[in-house]
Amino acid sequence: MIKFGIIKERKNPPDHRVVFSPEGLAKAVVKFPEASFLVENSDIRGFKNETYIDKGFEVSNDMSDCDVLLGVKEVPISALISNKKYFFFSHTIKKQPYNRDLLQAILDKQIEFFDHETIVNQKGFRTIGFGHYAGIVGAYNGFRTLGLKNSNFELPKADTLLDQKALVSELSKITVPAIKILLTGKGRVGSGAKEILDAMDIREVSIEDYLYKTYDQPVYAQIDALDYNARKDGKNLDLTDFYQHPEDYKSTFMRFAKVTDFYIAGHFFGDGAPCIYTREDARSKDFNIKVVADISCDIDGPIASTIRSSTIEDPVYGYDPVTETEIDFMNPKAIAVMAVDNLPCELPRDASEGFGEMFMKNVLPAFFNNDADGVLERARMTKDGKLTERFAYLQDYVDGKE
Ligand SMILES: NC(=O)c1ccc[n+]([C@@H]2O[C@H](COP(=O)([O-])OP(=O)(O)OC[C@H]3O[C@@H](n4cnc5c(N)ncnc54)[C@H](O)[C@@H]3O)[C@@H](O)[C@H]2O)c1
């Protein structure tokens, strides 16, 4: 029997998400009879303690007899229990300076640590994450920004609504003018954003039609890296070539920027890839985009107007392409930018349901099949007070040398 603990989130501002919803946990115990689950008492979770109790789970303040503790965001050092196995997002694998102490403490406390971000399949692709929900909330927030900027409709903030169904219901009440909407990215975020566009019955059109036809209704196109980049030598190679040799490519995004009114950015931006649009591009008379929902949210990166991230409390700011500075987004000169970097927090219940399903499918089996597919082996960052081989590159960071 392995005892899993669903821990309380302790970050500020509070994060209402959880690895398993009550419903998700109920499914997990049926599927894995050798697993038992204890839920930590929490008054900030998107699901009440009573809902877990109603499904037959114990809620406790003491998690010390669990074997494996499951959380979402960073656990404060003072709350880490020594010699346990832990799963959470530690934000350490890119040597983030603000979490160095946390990784040091994980090692000092002899914790066997698995980061949700390091859970990958044999091909190295991540199998769990919140990206899909970021896409859903990001697209919704983008429409909310569009309504505010053009003063033609008002949508409530996503975090005041219960779930995805409620978001879609609000969107069904608005009339979107005959604009062109561009979505970059066909991964998790892209699929979430597309789900919203499709739920709104916005017509998807081909790239050719998007670029050259006019419509009397709103339309969208979803594009990937080879649609907005081209090899400098004119050769047509595949996406893998782009991922491996981004320096051989240049952006062709301006052909889209010319005709797009509202841009939803949901791509991943790799090191060395060309800027999607530069500050100079944004100043060009051909640049038509007035609203950007930047879900990818790389600061000072490929999307020049994203000069900072924004918050759930204050999600929209304006970018003046002429002065390259922030201004009121309602100023007619401004490109309105929504760049919230923790979007899934606005939809905690659905995001938790989805995350639990992925965790149950891709991680839990490994505990009961002797890690046959190597899931735990690949994801394990620390053991017995040491970094594992795969994560040995973090040694200098942990030692405070970088
Ligand atoms: N704002 C938020 O709250 C939030 C939440 C989750 C994810 N994100 C961000 O959204 C972005 C997309 O995440 P995702 O989960 O959809 O990623 P994904 O791997 O599922 O999809 C990536 C997409 O980007 C394209 N791409 C372009 N260049 C690439 C490259 N060099 N390497 C890999 N893919 C490349 C891929 O072809 C694919 O269409 C990430 O940057 C992620 O950090 C933001």
From TrEMBL:
InterPro entries: AASS, AlaDH/PNT_N, Lys1. Keywords: Oxidoreductase. Pfam families: AlaDh_PNT_N. The keyword Oxidoreductase applies. Gene3D superfamilies: NAD(P)-binding Rossmann-like Domain. Residues 5-137 form the Alanine dehydrogenase/pyridine nucleotide transhydrogenase N-terminal domain. The keyword Oxidoreductase applies. It comes from the Bacteria. This is NAD(P)-dependent oxidoreductase. It comes from Aquimarina addita. The lineage of its organism: Bacteria, Pseudomonadati, Bacteroidota, Flavobacteriia, Flavobacteriales.
